[in-house]
Amino acid sequence: MNNVLYDQAVEILERNDLGHYTVPTHGLYPFQWNWDSALSALGQYYINESRAWTEIETLFEHQWEDGMVPHIIFHKEDDGYFPGPEVWATNRKVPSSGITQPPVTGFAIRRLYDRAHDKDMAQRRAKALLPKIAAWHNWFFANRDPDGTGLVAIIHPWESGRDNSIDWDDAFSRVPTEGVGEFTRRDTMHADPAHRPTKEQYQRYIWLVQHFRSLSWDNSLLHDASPFRVVDPGFNAILLRSCADLAALAEELGDDVLATEQRRLAEKGLAAMETLWSDKHQQYLCFDRAAEALIDSPSIGGLLPVFARIEQSRADAIAARIDDLGRRVKYLIPSHDPDVEGYDGARYWRGPSWLIVNYMISDGLLRDGHKDTADRIIADSMKLIHIGGFAEYFDPMNGAPCGGPHFTWTAAMVIEFLKLTGEVA
Hints:
The protein has 425 residues and is mainly α. Helices cover 49% and strands 4% of the residues.
């Protein structure tokens, strides 16, 4: 059966492969998404090692001059998605959005390099990507951490990858809806509206896009100009893990200057992460930079720091927290605590389980010695696939598939789990 699953995962990756980039799924997401590409490359490696590198290289071909890597690259026209390039109006040769996403590429290329069969090719391509990824990391700290705290803020919920998380509700309520104008969503034509963000949330999303567009997408201005400025521990954990992995890879490839710089960023950020710890919840919390207060909302964002090399005592506490969640849901890991107001097991990031988050958290838990918890996460992930196929995400109570079907990064994570557990050679 697992060989069948592997073959099905490969078929999905090939179905969504457009030659030099993949789409997350046809219809719902018809362009190249940033962190989707980085994580999907891990699965592509087992099909075509060179093609995996191409996925990330294509992303960085569209890096902005200031170092930012946008969250969507509009490689071709497709009116099946909103907001399209005419809404963003970033005036790029190849249209892109004007915001970014979790910077997981440092982690991804280190993993591709460590696994490489063709070391000469991997070394050449890694060396070319190192300074580009470092420039993106540096961009974050220059533009999203103006006070030098060691942690960066997101300025739009879409940047987090957790678009409609309960974490954002209070901070997002400060974003106006007036003056946005009429628009037609396309996502609800491809997926059940009950699985997607609400109309009001979309109005606020678009208000922010229009606001940033009015500032000509000047990244030196956008942080302070945004009414939504949130320090997400999950987002920062991904950034800090990528900084540390980029440092290790740079050191191996002989770039000691870049290695020292990236290691310094990782160490400073990990120390600052402790300001987000909640003894009450035994996990990290988001921080509303505009309100200057922690957000009392126990979500997956506060568990993701185990992906970075946090203190062992914190990793132990997060493992115990996940074990507790595992007694309250059938399939780990819910994207929000199921006993908190606002939880919705079918609606995007307000409760559902996602294999990509399961993958990153289990990776950190395995490193930190919590094999039993990691094994449960991996086993639950595979059960979800057996129940609901290669869906975008799943209800953690009953395993029902939600969101888009035939999802690229879900397939990539299935391949990763099958290889990790030795269930396929």
